[in-house]
Design a protein that fits this description.
alpha/beta, single chain, seven-stranded mixed β-sheet, 9 helices
Length: about 250
């Protein structure tokens, strides 16, 4: 029988714990495939965050380290400085990176740390029950914003990629989505370029991936993909903000 698909060797055989329709599994798959295709899986060291992907260390078939809430960039920095020949990445959600970890990611980018960050933005706190996150859209309902996010009270959602793209040390910044097959292919290409940025010693690289949370959005998996397309992408446009091949 002809094999048309095999699970990436970059993933372990442990089943994901994610909710039905959550796209963390797709993003894990892309990262794992890129590590294999670049031939760096055996040299890769990942840093898992706090949040829905807290158990990522169970799924990636490489060395992994757990970090405290928001501290993944600092932990990745330490690992990379001690083991400069290894490929080091942090995998973080919006609650971890864009809330308590904002200072960590800004200073890692400012220092030009040669690490790669995969930033998963689903516009809500997923693991802890759907509270409003820094990335929650204006008008979007959350358990702590039952009438929807109020801009006058909470301000607008933070745009991490746009902010980091203003920092000289950030050499690769791109926002992608995983809501359609075409966007998934583009996401994989961006993730690969982010790792190549590190491998070539250019500096800090981040890929923001727009993701879904059907459980806390109160939508079916299919309608969650549509909601991402209709609501998230207009506010968080898919775009390459910085490319190390063009940045001096």
């Amino acid at each position: 029988m002809t094999i048309v698909y095999e699970k990436s060797k970059g993933l372990t055989d442990i089943p994901f714990h994610y909710c039905p329709g959550c796209t963390h599994g797709v993003i894990h798959k892309l990262v794992a495939e890129v590590l294999v295709e670049l031939g760096v899986l055996d040299d890769a060291i990942g840093v898992a965050p706090v949040g829905c992907s807290v158990l990522a260390y169970n799924y990636f078939n490489c060395d992994m380290q757990e970090a405290s809430h928001g501290r993944a960039p600092a932990v990745a920095t330490g690992i990379k400085r001690v083991l400069p020949d290894n490929v080091v990445f942090s995998y973080q959600g919006d609650g971890d990176l864009a809330s308590i970890g904002t200072a960590e990611i800004v200073h890692a980018a400012h220092r030009g740390e040669k690490i790669t960050t995969i930033f998963v933005n689903n516009a809500i706190y997923g693991m802890t029950g759907g509270q409003m996150a820094p990335t929650t859209l204006v008008g979007q309902k959350a358990t702590t914003a039952p009438f929807g996010r109020d801009e006058a009270h909470c301000g607008k959602p933070i745009k991490i990629s746009e902010m980091l793209a203003t920092i000289d040390g950030a050499k690769f910044v791109e926002r992608v989505a995983v809501n359609t097959p075409a966007n998934i292919r583009k996401a994989k290409k961006a993730i690969k370029r982010a790792f190549e940025c590190q491998i070539q010693g250019k500096g800090f690289a981040i890929v923001e991936v727009l993701s879904t949370c059907p459980t806390n959005w109160g939508l079916t998996p299919v309608k969650a993909l549509d909601w991402l397309q209709d609501n998230m992408i207009p506010y968080y446009p898919l775009q390459n903000f910085r490319n190390f091949e063009e940045v001096k």
